[in-house]
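INFO  loader      accepted 1 record
INFO  loader      residues=409
INFO  predictor   begin
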Amino acid sequence: MQQVIDLVERAKAEAKGRAPSRVIPIAPARTVIAPGAEEAEVARILQICNACRYCKGFCAVFPAMTRRLEFGAADAHYLANLCHNCGACLHACQYAPPHEFAVNVPRAMAEVRMKTYHDYAWPQPLGRLYERAGLTVALALAAGLALFLVLAVALAGPLVHAPLAGNFYAIFPHNLLAGLFGAVFGFVVIALGLGVRRFWREVSPARDNGAAAVSAVRGSAAAEAAHDVARLKYLDGGHGEGCNNEDDRFTLWRRRFHHFTFYGFLLCFAATSVATLYHYLLDLHAPYALTSLPVLLGTAGGIGLLIGPAGLLWLNLRRDPRHGDQRQRPMDRGFIALLLLVSATGLALLAWRDTRFMALWLAIHLGTVMALFLTLPYGKFAHGIFRSAALLKYAIEKRLPSKLQLGAD
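INFO  predictor   done
INFO  writer      dumping tokens
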């Protein structure tokens, strides 16, 4: 009991600006990112939350928090990426502003998340692009690339042409498109993979529990983490009624629109993958019939990427400003705008692929797709990768014995 009392007193002291320095123990050999004010604020808030524990059933953050008494930089990075920013804990918190403790978990976690994206980025100097991945930059990049491709088409032939029966390769050769987008996609995979690898090396549960113990539970933990990612489990507010958005009412729409976006993206990726197999394995070349598997998958994915991002943008514009970090709103909206442009131009290209304007729509669509790909490693898309890694750590960690030992008093 004395330990809990100490936590409360320590939290009160830091809220008044006189906390002891050991509230945030930093282990330099373990910390990849230099700890700063963001990690310090997360540690201060979680000291208070750990003494209260009212929100323990809300999401994975709070059960993971209870396995710790103090929060170093690695803990702050892990828990910040485990947070789904649903806002439920803010509206339930008795210590939220205007209380003197000023507990705002969503905002503190969002600020640390942004720092992890920035500092774990590969190549690291490109992490600064997160600060510029806003709506204006996203639209300008898409417009610039689309214009470049439109001009390239215009130099090679007329923009308005005789119908080509949907043959895109009559405009851009297959090998050119495969080489160009393959190189960009490869870079995206490498950049995101190396970034999340650096993150995992810092927060890996094997550091505290040993490789053998982690290996024994890794399989079941990976299955649970994949299940939680697929369901977006922690966007239900912990009680199944959803998260908060503009006020303290619960809503499941944020979860639903995320599902449309997530599965729409996967369906579009599946359409491209199936078309690749058709081309190289079965020697079946585009254009494909409207009833073919690549077209059906792409159409369903495109519709999902219209509904989901449009809904998320609507919620984002209405969201309580206390939720998250307001400085990240341009990055959020830039990513949403690119998803909308890709889906809208893709569906338009499908609808008008047999008309005289196919070349124009193809150039516009490819420009928006290229803009989306180029910004994936340095924009909002990264949150899904880092959050999946955090969910895996949580699934592993909760299968292992807690090393937290409290005294008998």
